[in-house]
Each structure stands twice: as C-alpha cells, then as structure tokens.
Amino acid sequence: MDGVPWDVVALIGAVTLVGAFVQSVVGLGLGLLAAPVIAMVEPGLVPALPLWLALMISGAMVRGERHHVDWRAIAWALPARIPGTAIGAWLVLTFSDRAIGIAIGLMVLVAVVITVRTVDVPVTPVSLVTAGLVAGTTGTATSIGGPPIALLFQRRPPEVVRSTLSVFFFLGVCLSLAGLAVTGALSAASWHLGLLLAPLVVCGFLVGTRVRDRLPRDAFRTGVLVVCAASALALLVQSLV
Length: 241
Fold this sequence. Notes:
This protein has 10 helices and no strands. By secondary structure, it is an all-alpha fold. The protein has one domain. α5 packs antiparallel against α10.
C-alpha cells in the first residue's frame, strides 16, 4: 500500500475505527486519537491522512445532524481559520515535528485545566475568532484542531456540539488540505490509504450513532475533556520520545 506495511495499515485501521466511534459520540476524537499513532508508526502520513479521515467522519455527521448547527458560531470561527491555515502550513515547512508537538500538547493541556477549574468558557465573537485561528493553525500543522473550539462548546446540548463541530471540522479540513496541497505537503499515499480506511470510518460512525443518546449530560462533557487531554498527552509522548 504505497510502501506502507500491512501490519501498520491494520494498526491505523483499528485506531480509525475506534476514533470514528468516539467522534460520533463526543463530537471529536478521530483526529485526536489517530494522529499521534500515525505519527509514531508512519510519520510521512501526518498531517494529511488524519485530515482525510476527519473529512469523511465530519461529512457523515453533518448530514445526520445538520438541523442543530449553530451557524452564528460558524460565521465567527470559520473565517478565522483561514489565516490559521496559512500559519499552520508555514509551520509544517519551517519547524520540526517535535517542536510543534510539544507546543500544541502543552497548549491543549492548559486549556483543559483552565476549563475544568472554571464554571464556563464564554462563547463570544472574540473567543470564537481566537478558537478558529488556533484550530486552523494546529489543525493544519498536526491535524489536531478540535480542542480549541470543542472547549467553548462543551456545556452546550450534545446534538448542538456534534453538529456545529462537524460543520466547522468539515469546512476547516477542506481549508487545511488546500493549504497543504499548495505547499506540496499532500502525498498521494495519504489519500490512497484514506480511501482504503473509509469503510472503517463509516462503521465506527454508525455504531456510535446507536449509543450516543444514552449518555447523560455530565458524561458527555467529561468525554470531551478526557479526549482533549488524552490527545495532548499522546502528542507530548510522541514528540518527546
């Protein structure tokens, strides 16, 4: 498979299946879980492959829950992702994976700690623009762009979180992929493997849709924070080791 060993493909496929399930339930998770693993076993596929996978899962979720989208939040956050995408593409060309991983891992952990210790993070035009800019930068550089915007929406109804994040991810990933293509960082192997893994994305998504409404509100919020923290720790370990 474009020079990627089949045992590595199998490992990435297993993580993809679990990540698609998590994202279907929580609203994010596929990129957060898959990116660190892919970076450790096949660094040349990051950030492009996780972005292709994120495009598929977010597209499926948008189609299923589009009636709950907070379009006002999208209108503020998405335009800010454009300059963030440019910054992220520049970082891919300029800095080492280790330096980027350490910085982003620490940033996400700090964001999670701040959110846990406060009552709420206000969803305002300023916070949405800031989250969009950071998400564009981190999403393009590492494929992990979910935590900044997810932390703002963690206390909203689950269906609003899932649908709004899905629209933001889908359109944002399109921008990130375009930015990587312009800089020449988008390999053919990434989208070839993305097509191969597409059935696993669909399977994880369908299973997740059957169980997500059984989760209580507090468990849903905890799930968002746990996924964000886990991704940050995995990225730090990957970068330091």
